[in-house]
Amino acid sequence: MKILCLDIGTKRIGVAISDAFGWTAQGLDTLVRKNDDRVRERLLNMCRENDIKHVIVGMPLDQEGKLGKSAQRIEKFRANLEDYLHEDGVFIPVEGYDERYSTAEAEERLIQADVSRAKRKKIIDKMAAVVILEGYLREYRAK
Predict the structure, then answer these.
(1) Contact at 8 Å (CB) between 55 and 13?
(2) CA 85, CA 37: separation in Å to the nearest integer?
């Protein structure tokens, strides 16, 4: 079952995808958020092209595990995306998943890999989506 994972920011959305067995996560793309309708259309196409069965959206919960203002905006995007997919006949769940510290972990990984600051800026969102998806896959396999 392939899973698509989104790290949603105010300017960009990092996208990662799992393999069909749910063992690995790979960065797929970084989408620019100039027009959310076009972003949803692109995500719909990604779901169809890659036979996605589940979408995970990183939710930046606060220290107590609750939805802050940022997470509330992302929850709205998540709900709109799920409705958009369903309206187009793609009936897959779009689930929120705790993403606390994913960007910091992605940044650390890229620094350890000696990726230049300029290149890190271009791929950090995609890498954060990979970190979120890896966490989800670990938890999913443990169940």
Answers:
(1) no
(2) 12
Signed CA dihedral, 64, 69, 72, 78: sign only: negative
**Separation between Cα atoms, residue 25 and residue 85, nearest integer Å:** 22
Task: Report CA dihedral (138, 66, 96, 128) to the nearest 10 degrees.
Answer: -60
pTM: 0.91
Question: Which residues, listed in sequence order, are joined to residue 96 by a DSSP beta bridge?
Answer: 57
Q: For 71-107, what is each residue's pLDDT tens digit?
A: 899 999 999 999 999 999 999 999 999 887 777 777 8
Report phi then psi at 86, rounded to 5. Answer: -65, -40
Give CA–CA dist 138/104, Å, rounded.
19
Measure the CA–CA gap between 47 and 2, rounded to whole angstroms: 9
Each residue's pLDDT tens digit, 103-135: 777 788 888 888 888 888 888 899 999 999 999
